């Protein structure tokens, strides 16, 4: 068995660690690229959203490296993601690309359901080792999330352009190379030191912008045209509403781990704008805009794949949230035709707007 999975940001770091801990062969698909998207768009339905097309491309590229088993997360509610794993599997079968499919549906009642599904991949390995592997993977996810958050704070204050990006790559590589739970803490410390060594101007004024929306387009840099990097280079400190380790705890661990950031903080404040589940992260997107406005953020940018129904619902509500809170919002819709240059132009205009609004606010308070 050689297991692969979709490429979504740094998700490969914890998944690779978990599988290697269990002595399971893993094939990490190449980072998403134009080739990945071309392969996916060629073989996927035209109106399927960007994540499905990139997933198809990931699996075709992983097959070239010998992968034979796909592990995908499932979903529920009025969001197509819940059946995308099965649609992708059927498309691959039509292409005569043979894969075994394992779908990890979010547990409905207790975490034991998740462990039962994981058993399809882990076979007869001892439960204690399986649980330790899951814990190890989760800790790697938390470590990569911490380093990413550090980059959001450092990039807009860096003294040398590109220094944060180079440090981030080195720091993530340190975490990725940690080959056991025992070596991970030291690797995380080295990663922190790499990030802290980036020369910065701590007194440089920066804007604070939340990046909210659908999880795949938030976590995968190719899908969002590297928006976090571009905003940082424009002097904007970013906070992303969804981090991988938080999603794992909320949706797979059912909130088992306490005292960690959770999407519950968004759902609690989504009402009265949206007070029911609409699938995907639609409710959280609305709530996150409210939450970040209350935290004093200068603006929020919603990112979603073209035709994503839950995010379209949220998009229709965000103007009212913006009007009530006074925090500007902008929506970016991504598909295979999205261009980086056009997105940068829109970001520059939005950041200019936020600067003017920030200056006006300071003038009124001085």
UniProtKB/TrEMBL annotation:
<protein>
    <recommendedName>
        <fullName>DUF2229 domain-containing protein</fullName>
    </recommendedName>
</protein>
<dbReference type="InterPro" id="IPR018709">
    <property type="entry name" value="CoA_activase_DUF2229"/>
</dbReference>
<dbReference type="Pfam" id="PF09989">
    <property type="entry name" value="DUF2229"/>
</dbReference>
<feature type="domain" description="DUF2229">
    <location>
        <begin position="8"/>
        <end position="71"/>
    </location>
</feature>
<dbReference type="InterPro" id="IPR051805">
    <property type="entry name" value="Dehydratase_Activator_Redct"/>
</dbReference>
């Amino acid at each position: 068995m050689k297991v692969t999975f979709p490429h979504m940001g740094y998700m490969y770091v914890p998944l690779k660690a978990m599988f290697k801990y269990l002595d399971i062969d893993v094939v990490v698909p190449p980072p998403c690229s134009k080739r990945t998207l071309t392969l996916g768009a060629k073989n996927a339905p035209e109106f399927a959203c960007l994540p499905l097309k990139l997933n198809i491309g990931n699996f075709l590229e992983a097959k070239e490296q010998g992968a034979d088993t796909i592990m995908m997360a499932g979903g529920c509610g009025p969001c197509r993601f819940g059946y995308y794993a099965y649609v992708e599997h059927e498309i691959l079968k039509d292409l005569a690309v043979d894969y075994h499919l394992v779908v990890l549906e979010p547990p409905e009642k207790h975490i034991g359901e998740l462990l039962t599904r994981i058993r399809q991949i882990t076979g007869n390995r001892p439960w204690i080792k399986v649980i330790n592997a899951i814990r190890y993977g989760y800790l790697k996810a938390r470590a990569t999330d911490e380093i990413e958050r550090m980059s959001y704070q450092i990039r807009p204050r860096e003294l040398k352009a590109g220094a944060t990006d180079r440090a981030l790559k080195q720091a993530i590589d340190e975490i990725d190379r940690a080959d056991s739970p025992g070596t991970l803490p030291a690797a995380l410390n080295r990663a922190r030191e790499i990030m802290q060594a980036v020369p910065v101007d701590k007194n440089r004024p920066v804007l604070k912008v939340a990046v909210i929306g659908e999880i795949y387009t938030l976590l995968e840099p190719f899908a969002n045209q590297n928006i976090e990097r571009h905003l940082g280079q424009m002097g904007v400190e970013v906070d992303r509403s969804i981090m991988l380790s938080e999603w794992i705890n909320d949706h797979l661990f059912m909130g088992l781990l306490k005292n960690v950031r959770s999407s519950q903080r968004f759902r609690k404040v989504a009402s009265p704008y949206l007070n029911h589940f609409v699938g995907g992260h639609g409710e959280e997107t609305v709530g996150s805009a409210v939450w970040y406005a209350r935290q004093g953020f200068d603006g929020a940018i919603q990112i979603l794949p073209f035709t994503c129904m839950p995010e379209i619902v949220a998009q229709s509500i965000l103007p009212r949230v913006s009007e009530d809170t006074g925090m500007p919002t902008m929506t970016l819709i991504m598909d295979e035709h999205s261009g980086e240059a056009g997105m940068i132009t829109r970001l520059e205009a939005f950041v200019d707007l936020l600067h003017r609004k920030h200056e006006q606010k300071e003038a009124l308070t001085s």
